[in-house]
């Protein structure tokens, strides 16, 4: 799968980094952040976006507010409007060092064991994890879905469409940030991973 393939490739290319890089970056996210035009930010469910406007006066539902205007960088693209008084929905992209540290730690990330007889409850649980706008959580969702899909396939069952959908969404968010942090187009990231593992793209978003 794609996230397992990226681990060895990126570590070989860029080397290993300590956890301090990731921890210090997360600490920075806790402070006040003001974004400017052309900044790259991560917005939950959209991945990496570029700030195209700030302090944009708009009226939605009769309420006048000022917004960040973002352009999503992934294939589906689109314009996103985020109220400036809700900039906690945004965060800066991780640095290259922090991403490589996450990649290095991927084998140690534990899966989430949440289960319920109601599939909607399960889906809501993992969607909420993705809405946390945390790359580590997205990696955990991807790893969990990968494990559950593999379990179903081992029993000759057709994988749950919910699992594959969540897997694709989580991988898309992670890949978006890896691409931006490493300054490498997503297609190039996928090509390198495919060279290492021809099956890595089997469930790519």
TrEMBL record:
Lineage of source species: Bacteria, Bacillati, Actinomycetota, Coriobacteriia, Eggerthellales
Domain of life: Bacteria
CarD-like/TRCF RNAP-interacting domain span: 35-93
Pfam families attached to this UniProt entry: CarD_TRCF_RID
Origin species: Slackia exigua (strain ATCC 700122 / DSM 15923 / CIP 105133 / JCM 11022 / KCTC 5966 / S-7)
Protein's recorded name: CarD-like protein
Transmembrane segments: none
